[in-house]
């Protein structure tokens, strides 16, 4: 039997989904699971998108243009103008989700063996994309104790080496929910210009802001237009995760030319979804205000409930819809597995994402979890109640199996 590629040795399962087999087994036992492990919003998608999907009436679902339909690109250009970013159609390419754009960038910007910096805890799929491209993803650590604020520019500068080709800026951040100020971003832009490295901007959650710090698009810094490449997504902004639409945006034409070559090789992104998404510029601002307010209420409610559990520490995110919680356990992944395999209260339990997988530094995040507050408040209340009950039982089980500790 032939062997598969050695790449398999370096790839890991996503911490967001790696416990899925245990969750599926629990469901087969009749256990209801509150999913706090994945950023799948329960917010309704815009009605106009759903209506246009039903209205699609072409007799053949043909390939779209490789770089995206003219109608969707026009709609996206209008959206970016609203952010203060003036683009041409050559600066934008439609992708099959933001993930496709991110994956391509690891092949476009780097030679194998070069380095990319990221702030940890970091979005786990960066790790997989970097490994596939032979890129060394190197962490700059942020900490729960300081609410995951970025280190000083001096510290970031010290992390840059001769092999560093780019730095990823995820703003608002997944998994921490941190939002970075204009002043900090401007300093970062100046540093990257000075050190001649790219900035990969992942701004998927820019609509979800709850504090005083606004999400500043990196492409609004005119001086940085040639070094910033944006990987964007419609998934979270419009609650369209399953539509699998995103885009790559850059003023750097060699980057976009190479992206178009890859786009032609993969043929096209989904036709029907592109047609429906081209009408999203008609979604009223009230939609975003209402969604934002709902997530704000969920964030405040979740933090309040989690703080009632003894010895649990939580971050206070200013954006996105995630937070990091530190649990009074030695191994958070073991606790998460316990919740799916051995615990249930009234045939209900919770699925969490172990945070260790969001770190690159060994030993970091072992007693932390990422929680996505994508459920309604009554469900969040019940989920936290289950976490509290689960922790109590987990500790009792540990004491029972480890007497004398």
From TrEMBL:
Keywords: Aminotransferase, Pyridoxal phosphate, Transferase. Its cofactor is pyridoxal 5'-phosphate. Its EC number is 2.6.1.-. The keyword Ribosomal protein does not apply. Residues 33-385 form the Aminotransferase class I/classII large domain. The keyword Isomerase does not apply. InterPro entries: Aminotransferase_I/II_large, AspAT/PAT-like, NHTrfase_class1_PyrdxlP-BS, PyrdxlP-dep_Trfase, PyrdxlP-dep_Trfase_major, PyrdxlP-dep_Trfase_small. Gene3D superfamilies: Aspartate Aminotransferase, domain 1, Type I PLP-dependent aspartate aminotransferase-like (Major domain). It comes from the Bacteria. GO terms for molecular function: pyridoxal phosphate binding; transaminase activity. GO terms for biological process: amino acid metabolic process. Belongs to the class-I pyridoxal-phosphate-dependent aminotransferase family. This is Aminotransferase. It comes from Candidatus Beckwithbacteria bacterium CG23_combo_of_CG06-09_8_20_14_all_47_9.
